[in-house]
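Q: I'm building a small set of examples for a reading group on sequence design. Run inverse folding on the following structure and report the sequence directly after it, with nothing in between.
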């Protein structure tokens, strides 16, 4: 990782690249928070009928139905954990897997390409969460802040 004094040397393009590299962890944290929040909103819509409800119908998914209700719970809980940056890698892996399942079970039989089968959001969420499995929560996360907390004095 670059330090701030190293950014002062080099060509303007090199300096820009170095400044962007310094911001990368914070950009990834922002990406994580936005993706998690959007995913949690899908779960809240399906479980509670808010934000347009399940599939935009205004209704909810019947409790305990497979796979809709379980997917909505994963979306709400997993999305909330990813948004907060708590248990990010595990939650993101489960969320990514649920979106891969959704794509191949619900969308792919209607056509190969996401534009044909309506599976764009499932594909994008699947890959976005898979990236988060490898990048982790970043510095703007609950996990990071809890690790940085000073030990209590005895």
């Amino acid at each position: 990782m670059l330090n701030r004094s190293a950014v002062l040397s080099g060509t303007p393009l090199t300096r820009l690249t170095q400044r962007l590299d310094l911001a990368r962890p914070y950009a990834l944290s922002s990406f994580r928070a936005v993706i998690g929040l959007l995913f949690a909103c899908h779960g809240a819509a399906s479980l509670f009928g808010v934000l347009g409800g399940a599939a935009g119908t205004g209704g909810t998914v019947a409790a305990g139905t497979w796979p809709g209700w379980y997917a909505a719970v994963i979306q709400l809980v997993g999305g909330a954990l990813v948004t907060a940056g708590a248990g990010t890698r595990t939650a993101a892996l489960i969320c990514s897997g649920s979106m891969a399942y959704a794509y191949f079970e619900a969308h792919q039989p209607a056509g190969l390409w996401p534009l044909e089968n309506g599976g764009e959001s499932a594909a994008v969420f699947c890959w976005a969460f898979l990236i988060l499995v490898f990048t982790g929560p970043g510095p703007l996360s609950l996990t990071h802040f809890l690790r940085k907390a000073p030990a209590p004095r005895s």
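The radius of gyration is 19 Å.
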